[in-house]
Description:
Radius of gyration: 54 Å
Shape: flat
Helix content: 55-70%
Number of strands: 10
Strand order of the largest sheet: 3-10-9-4-8-5-7-6
Distance between the termini: 105 Å
CATH architecture of the domain at 321-574: 3-Layer(aba) Sandwich
Largest sheet: 8 strands, mixed
CATH superfamily of the domain at 321-574: P-loop containing nucleotide triphosphate hydrolases
CATH topology of the domain at 321-574: Rossmann fold
Amino acid sequence: MGSLKVEPIRNTRLVRIRCESRQPIVAAQVANGYAESFINFGLDRKLEANRHARKFLAGQMDALRKKMAQSEERLADFMAEAGIAHLSPQEKAPAEKESVQIRDSLLRARLLMLQKQIRLERAKAALADGRAGVPENPYTLEIKKLLLKEVARYQQMEETYKPEYPGMTRLHAEIEGLKGELAQEKEGSVADLEADFEAAKANYEGLEQEFQHSMEKVRGESKALAHYALLKREADTDREMYSSVMRRMRETDITSALNASNVEVVESAEVPNMPSRPKKARNLLLGFLGGGMGGIGLAIGLAKFDTRLRGKEEVERALGLPVLGMVPDTEKLRAKGIDEIPADLPMALATHVSPDSAISNSFRQIRTLLHYSIPDGRPQVMMFTSSQMGEGKSSTCVNTATVLGQQGTVLLIDADLRRPSLHKTLGLRPHPGLSELLTNQAPLEQAVQATALPNVWAIGAGRTPCHPADLLGAAAMAYLCQWARSHFGYVLLDCPPLTGMPDAAVVGTLADGAVLVIRDGYVDRSEARRVVETLLGVNTRILGAVLNRVQTSARSYYAYHYAYRLPEEQKREQSLKAPSQPS
């Protein structure tokens, strides 16, 4: 025989009995026999428990019956002796009722006495100071009105007559008489208030004595009531316990008579027609579905937790910026052997060395879209920045300068004073540069250097200053940009990354617009959004984004850009003559 398992069914009061055996008949018989044995076992235990319970309850009932009779007898004797046979436990004694009523009257009398005392004290203070506040009756109000009238008359006559004039002396005497009469009336009002207070005080003191007498009566009755409550509670407890045991004994008799089990078989086991396991078809289906769903779930999870910007559509959707162009990853192009760019060549010189490469065509597209990036003409002064280091903003800036140099003069300014790279890329003198120029340590003629790129001149960063952001925000930087506008067709500023440094935000206020360089699959969306918000916060126009090192099919990307280049454009670039350096 195989294994036997009992499994509860979730969210129900059912269990499933499983028996595995090589013989189908034996498996069904064992499962049904186990269920029947369990039911019989439960019935036997129930009957045995009922027998023990009835025997125990019968002994308890005899003892409780005697105890209940004794407690009720003691209660009856005490009630007859104390004369409180008709007093319920919830009802208060007569003396206590009377005490409560007197106490309420005493509280009201005390409140009334305090109110009258306050009114009396206020009236006395007002009378002593001559202020308003003494209660006035209609006669007092009439005297006050007449007094005010006579005073006004006296003041009017005073403008014409002297105080010795008979009419004036007579009127003055009348005013003094009215004042005396008014004072007498106020004193009478105060006397009335004092009489009211004394009456309230006498009433309060009488109620206080009456309350003390009632409390003595209550204390006399409380002892008897406390003893009565104790005996009554004891008798009620004994009666309730006896009734409870009697009910339990009746329930036990009924349960024993029923002789029923609370367990029943819902569905008996039948002899199976086929083996229960292994289920090959189901296992194959589950494996197929599990693998497929697992792969889909893994892909969705990776896409959800990977918040890096990837592809043109995602950049436009996440940042709300137009994508000016997509520069392919040169490492992938070189790995496939389909790009003409030498392996040891810096990315910044790719457009200059290999003008027919996919990268060159990408930057020509960027040049075209930059010309139409603002509605009021093409931008002249442009800054290039990124979110982090390593996104290729310097190489993007140099390559853009290369293609712009095919249409006009360009001045490259290395505004990354913390980590300058332009002088190494273009083979320039490290200094004097921008820092010396802004601190008046070198003239423009020495700072501006010619490069190997046609029609492109450059200003290196120079020596690293102590406070680059303050130097870039000085008036000298604004003057330099203004000078460059009047002498060059384009001015490109290679600025440091915006994350954690304010340098690019300071320079952004001097440019016609900013170009944000984003490395494909490298920068987090939230970080790129913060960079955009920073630029917009200083009122810098964002011309668009350049998606650098795009992780797409290098062969198709290269073939498209290479085939799409027009022969006319090649001839025009070859015939373009480089103008002399601006003065």
